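Quick one: structure tokens for this chain, please?
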Amino acid sequence: MQTKKQIPFLSDIHSLFPISSYNKIIILILSLLTTVFTLEISAQTPQWQFMGLAGEEIYDIAVDDSGNVFVASWTGVFKSTDNGVSWAFKNNGLQIGDIYKLFIDYEGNIYLCGSANFPGYGLYKSTDGGENWIGIADTLNRNPTNNFEDVTIIPNALGGIIYASNYYGVYRSTDNGITWQSTNFTDPGARNIGINTNGYMFFGNATASWFGIYRSTDLGLSWERHTFLGVSAMVYLRDGSILAGCYDPGLGESGIYKTTNNGDTWFNTNTFSGISSPSDFSLDKNNDIYVSYAGFAVYLSTNNGNSWINYGLSGLGHSVICMAIDSSGYIWAGSHLDGVYRTEGRTIPVELVSFSATAKNNNVLLSWVTASELNNQGFEIEKSFNNTNWFIIGFVNGSGTTTNINHYSFFDNEIISDVQYYRLKQIDYDGTYEYSNTIEVEISTPTRFSLEQNYPNPFNPTTQIKYSIKDAGLVQLKVYDILGKEVANLVKENKEAGFYATKFDASNLPSGVYIYQITTTGFMQARKMILTK
């Protein structure tokens, strides 16, 4: 049997309240504690804008790649599609109390977890932007306390493992939440599950009986406690180091602790002193770190947590509990009962001023303009025929870091459908990326019959042949050798008016000159092509 050591301070509070109430009690305590800060004060504090939701007990904020903002609260989920101007309540399918954590995966699916009744679900997933929610996990061991603390996917990519923590420990799923595997950590309170750039996994625990930073070297199958600090927040930096907001029960004080050796040792950075712990961290794309201190303000570090400057949002009646950074570099903060706030970060985003398309005959010209760029390697151009399945059709180099206006264009002459969809994937030098909005291009019905020159030409062994049909009817497309012998029948079917393309594979034919010919009602045309092996 595992012996659980009782540690003072928060253990007394935890014994009086169930886990589902523990989060609210912590918020109240952190708001009342007095902290002495030792840091540099910014000469120009950013202006924070109130974005609504006053009176809500806010626990988490997440922003997807399209700029939609999601807020988790004690009543459910709120969504804004217009940068916080308005909010819609999105609780269809949810049967849950307080929602503690939101997570958005690489495909835009949203996960949330919180406290719920049993039987019932404490972990939910939405595949349609929060419009509908489906429960994917209950307590996972049929015991009655249905309280989930954390959910994440590592890596956040195809094949990633889902990790979730609840009252009964940390669980993992390798099949998108269909089945779950327990780990050797079987206690409450695991939060901030993550992985550093060196492949070591961690989580922190702020529940008094299980204070600590825990580490796993086998992708979360087993966990080992490495400190006895109470952990309120963690952030995983891109150099492999980790910052953690901690309470030291032995000293009776808090601070920001750091490891630079994969969790072997942790040291107090002494950038803050006192007995209050950070409520959340956020890391932006140029490695600036933001930390919120309950009852005080938001602070910024530009040097991996070695020093901090005041970034505003002080003087609220209640604590700043959570933060998120959107793709444009804006910082979002949720305050307990005081609502949602937003301000500009230091990031100079790739600010896309316009993205448009012009269709002419069987071609599309894409044009876009940026007002500023930061570490912009370039743009992948992606295309789809159904706005769901995308493929890459080209790449245009970016301008690095600049505040000048830049104009870009790309020419797509591979049109094989009446409707095309396009989007840009802007990629930074460090591999991070974000998508533009999607634009739809309708190709008008052809006004004439035509047979285009094959491309490439000469070719080996495949080439593409494009043609346009003005009127519906039977279409035949055949290939002949130089002596007039038919060697391939590529198309023989009824076609609606439109633009078409077909592939010719000459793997089994010898090098030489070939003739391809289209025939339909009222039109016939032939062209030459050269196969070179």
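Residues 1-43 have pLDDT under 50 and may be disordered.
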